[in-house]
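Aim 2, interim progress: modelling of the magnesium ion-bound target.
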Amino acid sequence: MAASGGAWEAVIGLEIHAQLATESKIFCGAPTSFGDAPNLNIDPVTLGLPGALPVLNRRAVELAIRLGLAVGSRIDRASRFARKHYFYPDLPKGYQISQFEEPICVGGQITCDVDGVEKTFGLTRIHLEEDAGKNVHDPKTGRSYIDLNRAGTPLVEIVGEPVLRSPADAVAYMKAVHEIVVALGVSDGNMEQGNFRCDANVSVRRPGAPFGTRTEIKNVNSFRFVGRALEYEIARQIAVLEEGGAVVQETRGWDDDAGVTRSQRGKEEAHDYRYFPDPDLMVVHVDEALIDAIRAELPELPRARRLRFEHSYGLSAYDADVLTQSPARASYFEAVAGGVKDPKLAANWIMGELLATLNREGKDLEASPVPAAALAELIALIEGGTISSKMAKDCFSAMVADGVAPAAWVKQHGGQITDEGAIQAAVEAVLDQSPAQVAEFLSGKEKVIGYLVGQVMRQTRGKANPQQVNAVLRASLEARR
Ligand code: ADP
Ligand code: MG
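Predicted structure of the complex, ligand included:
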């Protein structure tokens, strides 16, 4: 009988693969560099030649621990590598070295915002494994080639619990994991190069019912693709079930051009892989000293930094987001904010003038023509009333062009005119020269005040304090009624 109508709920769990940022492969000294001539970065271990023995890359272990500690995993003090067998041309040994029963990191969680709602999603495990090589199909000749440069590069597989309930959850979660591995320097996260990709597992059920049969969408290397692939796959499974059919457990691929998932192969069960501990590799013992040392070096994570910027500097979520786009930008902001009264003003200057200038000049913040201390000095001059915002913009242009210090600029151009008497005199002079505009104002057309302010600023070469000019002008106009 076909189930009809009523709500369906999606159940999603991602397995994310991130390539670790090591110089050499996980079990040998061959380099991990990308884009080299095919089969350049190979050796007997990569090729799986008989007698070649793997030696574990210490850095890969440290990076996995770094990630595990950052996301609250338990670090297993004794983890183990296993052989996962399957036959594919890009896997020379006929097995992949992975971790199965004893992964290095167990549990943990990822917190992220989904459409403005904070959610925390549990992790099952994070384990170490080697990547496979690449099959390259040449449509012109119809031949297939094998490039083993990538074979043996170190990966962490981050296995999430099946706790995501929508494509939006999945995209936000994947972005959060990406942001974390990049911020930690655990992976470069380059998605075009396939250094960060996921297998998306998805099933549907009636809310509260046991999990349904899942399909697994393999090797998705874009946030947008994950969202689209899951939308499609959820709708497909619901349609199958509503027509009275059954979802087949299988591996599917996402074809973004066609906008569909396609069946690739039946899903293996764990026993199909004939896992067993790899006798060539020792148990990985991790001691407390190593864990403590790695923990001591953990940086603040991007999300924590965003929230801290909102709370301790009173910034909007948007500003905090823009200012934490990179560690360099965040520390630049903190350096400026530390030297001024109003952090919001610091944020405005960085997000406005400074970023616009860097953009125009095609420069990174690291190469900013205006150091943080100089910008702070400029903003402090505005806050102290020495210069107006308008003058500050001129000063900033000079700082960019000639590297002039704000104090030197003020010395040369003079500060802002705040002397009541001087402003009054300039106002009276302008009013005397503008009888028509005065009459207009007095007849109720108050907009003309903008013109009069402009004239006074002109008279004072832009140096009069604009708020004072405004107030004095109004008072003098009223006096002429
Ligand atoms: P494997 O895919 O290697 O067999 P697991 O069975 O441990 O490994 O599951 C892998 C992923 O599938 C996990 O991220 C998990 O959250 C997710 N998953 C498991 N069961 C379901 C289900 N019924 N629906 C959706 N996702 C699921
Ligand atoms: Mg899987």
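The first strand starts at residue 9 and ends at 19. The chain has a mean pLDDT of 94.
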